[in-house]
Amino acid sequence: MKLLEAVSLNKRYGMERRWFTPGVRGVQAVNNLSFSLESGETLGLVGESGCGKSTLARLLLGLEKPSSGRVLYRSEDYTDWSFSKMRTIRNRMQMVFQNSLASFNPLFTVEQIIGEPLRNYGERKAQTLRVMVEDTLERVGLERQHIHRYPHELSGGQQQRVGIARAIALRPELIICDEPFSSLDVTLRKQMMDLLQELKRELGLSYIFITHDLSVVNRFCDSVAVMYQGGIVERQTGEHIMQHADHPHTRRLLSAVPVQDPRLRGHRISREKEYRE
C-alpha cells in the first residue's frame, strides 16, 4: 500500500526585484517530480548539493507549500491543508536532521527535548512523560542517566541518538532522515544505520533517507532515487544502480564514491573516461 505519494511536484522560489535589475525568473528547486513510497519501504534519495533534496523533504512534511502538484498521505491529499489541520497527521511523519545539535533548544535537557512532541500531542502527566522518555531513550541505546543532560554535554553520536529518539517518540509511520550521518565517523555511522534498521523492524517504520553518498544507501535502502536539477532521473534497487547505472549523472555520482581497494582504482579511472566520452 502506498504510504506517501508526490504527483508532478514543483517548487519555485522567486527572487526580489531590485533597482536596475532585469526581470528574474527565480529558482526552480523541485521540477515536475513524482514518486511513491510503499509502507515499510526505505527509499534512498541521492543527489549533489543544491539538487532539491532538502526542499523536497520540507514539501513532503508540509513545512512549505509547493508551487504546483500534489502530496498524498495514504491517498489523502494534504497539499493545501492549514497548519492546524496538518497537526492531525504531523505526528505520523517526523524528521531526523543532519545537525541534531542545531535542532535542539540549548536550554532544554534531554528529557525536555524528547518530551516536547509528547506534550504537544496531549500528554501532560509528568510521571507518564518521564516513563515514555526513558523507554524511548532505551530504544536508541542511551541510558537513563542521560535524561538530565543538556545537548552540549553529549557526544556527537549521543546527540544523533537523541535526535532519533525525538523522532520516534510519537511512534510515527514515516521518518525522513536528512543527511543524518554526514558529521559522524565511520564507526558511529555504522552504529546509527544498525539502530535505524532495528527500529524499522520493531516499530514498522518507513524511511526516506536523504544523502549524497551512494555507498551508504546501497547497504541501507530498498530502492534508490537519484535527483538532478530538481527531478528524479533514475530509480532502481541499490545493487542495480551500483552495478548498472543508467543515467550519466548517476555514473558521475558513483565515480565520486571512495574506492578502498587500490587494485580497483585503475578500473574506475577508465570508467570515468568512458563516462566523459
Automatic annotation (TrEMBL):
<dbReference type="InterPro" id="IPR003593">
    <property type="entry name" value="AAA+_ATPase"/>
</dbReference>
<keyword id="KW-0813">Transport</keyword>
<dbReference type="InterPro" id="IPR050319">
    <property type="entry name" value="ABC_transp_ATP-bind"/>
</dbReference>
<feature type="domain" description="ABC transporter">
    <location>
        <begin position="4"/>
        <end position="254"/>
    </location>
</feature>
<comment type="similarity">
    <text>Belongs to the ABC transporter superfamily.</text>
</comment>
<dbReference type="InterPro" id="IPR017871">
    <property type="entry name" value="ABC_transporter-like_CS"/>
</dbReference>
<protein>
    <submittedName>
        <fullName>ABC transporter ATP-binding protein</fullName>
    </submittedName>
</protein>
<keyword id="KW-0067">ATP-binding</keyword>
<dbReference type="InterPro" id="IPR003439">
    <property type="entry name" value="ABC_transporter-like_ATP-bd"/>
</dbReference>
<dbReference type="GO" id="GO:0005524">
    <property type="term" value="F:ATP binding"/>
</dbReference>
<keyword id="KW-0547">Nucleotide-binding</keyword>
<dbReference type="Pfam" id="PF00005">
    <property type="entry name" value="ABC_tran"/>
</dbReference>
<dbReference type="InterPro" id="IPR027417">
    <property type="entry name" value="P-loop_NTPase"/>
</dbReference>
